[in-house]
Here is the input.
Amino acid sequence: MAVFLQSLISGVLIGGVYALIGIGLTLIFGVMRVINFAHGDIMMVGMYLTYLLFTLMGVDPFVSVLISFPLMFFFGGFLQKVFINRVLNAVAQNQILLTIGLGLVMSNTVMLIFTSDYKILTTSYSSSTIQVGGGVSISTPLLVSFLITAVITAALGWFLLKTDTGQAIRATAQDRDAAQLMGINVSRMSVIAFGLGAALAGTAGALISPTYYIFPQVGGTFTLKAFVITVLGGMGSVVGATLGGILIGITESMSAVYISSGWKDVVVFVLFLLVLLFKPSGLMGKSRT
Amino acid sequence: MRKHLLALGAVLALSPCLMAQKIGVINSMSGPEAPIGEHITNGIKLAEEDLKKKGINLQLVWEDDTGKPQISMSAMEKLATRDNVVGVVGPYTSACSNAVAKLAEKYRVPLLIPAAAKEEITRQGLKYVFRMNAPADKYASSLIDAAAALGKPKSIAFIYENTDFGTSTSKTAKEYVAKKGMQVVADEPYPKGAADYRSTLAKVKSKNPDLVFMVSYVADAILLMRQSKEVGLQPQAFLGAGAGFTTPEFAKERAISENVISCTQWTGDVNWPGAKEFEARFKAKFGKEPTYHAACAYASMMIMAETARNAGGDRTKTQQGLKAGKWNGVMGEVQFADYEGFTNQNNHQMLVQQIINGNYETVLPAKFATKKPIFPFPKWK
Here is the structure.
């Protein structure tokens, strides 16, 4: 029972961080219909930003979110304006090539600057835990990052539902042409959406760095994960991505316990295929015609 | 040209002591293995200095294999045929050494491999191939022997990355454990780079093993130990087999690395003749602590150069000299013997070390040790 609870809890907590990565990707896809294959690499940039802030200025990784969120927002906005914007009406494979290329440029630039060595952030609380009783313990940094994730997701939900800009973003996501006809500045909404997506990915990077390690090629794993989460939850659905992230987190940790750690990726992808088979639009997705 | 060579040969035969000994070095000086390659290079440079003091004139021919077997092979061809070296020290990685070994045999060039772990290299009956370091199976057996000597462990759990390195090391370990009558209660290969090992570790914890045996590189080693602490995994000993558990980065993480037991080919505080001096000189000259690779490379070059000098620069005589010789130096006693299917393998004594107060301290075998081992593993704070 303790093992079950332990793996459930760590699955949910790590799933929260996955969700944050997935939400960024789904937001970008929703507004621009572009699959951002550089998403994991943007997250990696966020990790290195956190690393720099921590080692050079002693900023705590969790506090550094306040700095890295706006910085990553501008970085994302810049990427959209200079690169992505040009391929919005191009065929899908060209968009994919562009984002993959951007990702490669990012990871190799970082490798040139920081070398390919693994970097580990060691904070005073990196391996501290809270005992919940029954032999179950919760990693403090993971819990904190989950709470921050929850706050950010809630804030994002409020922003999208209640503010004018948020509604404009959703309108653009629903129908780009109609939104433009209604007087919405769709190209600006695209910049904001990509900026937000990048900021969320960067934040996820910052949140995971006290418990994980950093290297230039770390992005690939997370791009794949974000992609699975987004498709699982329904392309373009923020709620779906949140659910998808937590679902993947739990599946990974449960299958590591009850099958084998070596098989957990297999289980995740089988689940992914099953969802695609029986509900091709994803858990929360509405199929478009 | 032939005349020149003949003349050269004549001079060589007449005055072996006056001539510079031409010895080849194949090493990974660039590429992904470069950080370790640097230690090997520096170890050889120190040997060069010491040999000069002993009056042995050395002419080293350096070849960089960038960690790739095919480049390593062409380097060997060049050294054997164009540079006409007496012997070769290197290469670093197992893959390169294994590729080069067959060439050394073909060209009859004595090859002394300082620090490659793959067992097969010296298991092919190659007469011209010698190895300084202990092969991979010793890692597992020396660690398990150490744990068995300290307590009475009955069960063991394996956690290792599912790569060639991880699976092969744990495979030999599992076979060895079976012979010792210990029970394997968990066998967990994991995909490298996963963010979360907590569930795996919780599962291992529920089996309550006496020993936890892990094979990982640096980053995963730190992550695994951090998360072991989180879930409260509490065996009698954590055994780290190589790579990630023997680095300064790991030792620096004192909250989680303290008291972890690992094994290595060499330590700076072992009481082998010249080991402490070697460490001090290495640190003064290169500003870094030497790894075991540096000591292996140093000892290999010393032995190769002295043997080549005594053999008068003749390859066959050098081979015979290496085979017959016996040395005692920074690597302890060295002798290239045939045993258990190995040929020309130095039956090197692995050292078991434990991180005590943030430093690697040699704890076993007792006659080489400077500190007493801490056992069982203290309760997590």
